[in-house]
Design brief:
The chain is an alpha/beta fold. It has helices spanning 11-29, 44-59, 77-80, 110-122; strands spanning 2-10, 35-40, 64-68, 98-106, 127-135, 147-151, 159-164, 170-179. The strands form 2 sheets. A 5-stranded parallel β-sheet has the order 3-2-4-5-6. It has a 3-stranded antiparallel β-sheet with strand order 1-8-7. Helix 1 crosses helix 2 (44-59). The radius of gyration is 17 Å and the shape is globular. The protein starts with a strand and ends in a 5-residue tail after the last strand.
């Protein structure tokens, strides 16, 4: 079985998408008052940091930034064996904040559900909004993103991979198709 990779977003496409999402977040929330970004480890936390840099450039001031690890909140933990538990880094109160949860790829919605459960254990936000770089469809839960870099319809057996450089900046998004499955 072989693999076919197609670049669907290069670094400049990712830059444009993240800049647009940053502007949309600011427009919807009328600035950064009571607004915080929380990225889902790993991938969403890197994108949240990039969004925070863009928002700071636009607004002239920083925004609180955190990261959440959802390992212990997963609903498939029993079937996956032992997974390394990461660190949740939210050094501020989320009570009454407008939380923008950031992830790289939205697929079934289960990761987002786990992240929301983790956030609710930390406090009671005023609202939770969702920003994703890629929405690939196939939802199993009623979860919809508020901000999307790009919609990429996929087959269930395909995969989306967001690649990061050594500085944790997104540089490429690839669609990965497995050849030799299902008569392809």
């Amino acid at each position: 079985m072989s693999e076919q990779n197609t670049v669907i977003l290069n670094s400049s496409g990712i830059e444009r998408a993240l800049t647009r999402i940053a502007h949309e977040i600011l427009e919807r929330n009328k600035g950064i008052d009571d607004l915080v970004l929380v990225g889902i480890r790993t991938g969403g936390d890197h994108l949240a940091a990039e969004l925070a840099r863009r928002i700071e450039t636009i607004e002239g001031q920083g925004i609180e930034l955190g990261a959440v690890d959802i390992t212990m909140y997963r609903d498939d933990l029993g079937s996956r064996g032992s997974l390394p538990v990461g660190k949740t880094d939210i050094l501020f109160s989320i009570d009454e904040k407008k939380v923008v949860l950031v992830d790289d790829v939205l697929f079934t919605g289960r990761t987002i559900r786990a992240a929301m459960d983790a956030l609710m254990d930390l406090g009671r936000p005023r609202s939770i909004q969702l920003a994703v770089l890629i929405d690939r469809g196939h939802r199993e839960l009623p979860i919809r993103p508020d901000y999307v870099g790009r919609n990429v319809p996929t087959a269930r057996e395909e995969d989306i991979e967001v690649r990061f450089d050594q500085d944790n900046r997104a540089v490429e998004v690839r669609l990965i198709k497995q050849q030799g499955r299902g008569g392809n």
